[in-house]
Amino acid sequence: MDTNTAGSPDAAWVAARQAEFRVALAGFDAAKPILILGHHDADGLSSTAILVRALARTGRATEVRVLGRGENVWSPEMAAELRGRGMGGLIIADLGTRVEPPRPGVPTVLIDHHVPTGVPEEAVLISGHGLHPTPTTSLLAWWCAAGITEADDLLWLAGVGIIGDMEEGAGFAELAAARERWGITALRNAVSLVNAPRRASAGDAGPALALLMKAGGPKEVLSGEHPETAALLAARAEVQEALAEGRRAAPRIQGQVAIIPLHSACQIHPLIAQQWKGRLKGKVVIAANTGYRPGWVHFAARAGSGTDLIRFFADHRPEGADPVQYGNGHPQASGGALEAAAWNRFVTGLGFDAALQVPPFPSAPMEG
Predict the structure, then answer these.
(1) Distance CA 90, CA 83 (A)
(2) In sequence order, which residues have a C-beta less than 8 Å from that of residue 358 and are 6 or more positions away?
């Protein structure tokens, strides 16, 4: 696929994705609301807000369901929930892909930037996989939105999603435009606030989405004129305290793998993994959190450009790993969740001793 020098795909590529989105929407039942399922991080929440606000401008009714801690679209629990909902169509944003349709018989659009793990035959996939750099889900959603309505004022939401997933060096022309119009400091601070609730112990991203649904820009997110900002600030303070404690954990190293053991109710493992990546160059850095969800180890992995984490996790997949919750994401940023027994098999297979194994329902941190 051709890209221009700014890092964004060419106009013809974007126009083709916009046409696919319009055709898919035309196949939805206009008499029923569109259900949007979105991830609870900055990219997923921004994508959801873009889609809801754009569809409202075209007169389409929507309902939103944000998936949070331990949830995935293709679980039996989600299948049961979707069967109980009436919907004119389904849009799934930033939640990965799979061969099985989440709701058979319902027209579905998948908007996603992760490495595809399968596409339901009944669904339309809007993906930038294969482009370099890969567009985030929020940028894909903004292109889709711009194909059905005026969406220039929503570009800041795409900027929040891009920075949230790719930091600030993504190289997209759209991010450069967002930075010039709204300011990089405001965008960066908005990302920090929007990500805080899902990282806090309660894991409730509802206030963050509510704020993105009504704010006119990142400075409004930060201003305090909406009550949700106070909730986000409190969540961020909790996460910062947990992060300060997590930074004191020492890595254990075996060969080319470094594991940082954590025990926190907050989702600090991606942040810890990212911080150690620069200090442990050439290593697969895995921050493993036994306190995030009882009976599970949630982990985030980071590596340099010479390592493919998707292949790494495939090569070391333990018995009992759920393909939806293990080893997905990006070549240099992956992770997942394993039940305790599967985690123990995983670390044993990597050559680590019993100090990194956990009981079925850990109540204390792994030994450092």
Answers:
(1) 12
(2) 290, 297, 340, 343, 344, 366
Yes or no: say if 89 and 28 are a contact pair by the CB < 8 Å rule: yes
Q: Would you say 29 and 189 are in contact if contact means Cβ atoms under 8 Å apart?
A: no
Q: What is the pLDDT of residues 209-263, one digit of tens each?
A: 999 999 999 999 999 999 999 999 999 999 999 999 999 999 999 999 999 999 9
CA angle 102, 326, 160 (to 5 degrees): 75
Q: Where do we find the tokens 């909790």?
A: 238
| Lookup result for tokens 């889709």 | 144
Who contacts 107 (Cβ-Cβ below 8 Å, separation ≥6)? 24, 27, 28, 89, 90, 122
d(CA 273, CA 255): 17
Residue 326 DSSP label: E
Q: What is the pLDDT of residues 90-133, one digit of tens each?
A: 999 999 888 888 899 999 999 999 888 888 888 999 998 888 88
Tokens of 344: 């123990």
* Residue of 284, 274, 224 whose CA lies nearest to 253: 284
Q: Are 201 and 243 in contact (CB under 8 A)?
A: no
Angle formed at CA 357 by CA 296 and CA 345, multiple of 5 degrees = 80
DSSP 330-360: ETTEEEEEEEHHHHHHHHHHTT--GGG---S
In the chain, where do the E strands start and end? 34-39, 62-67, 89-93, 108-112, 123-127, 252-254, 257-262, 284-289, 296-302, 326-330, 333-339
User: H or E segment at 24?
Assistant: helix 11-26
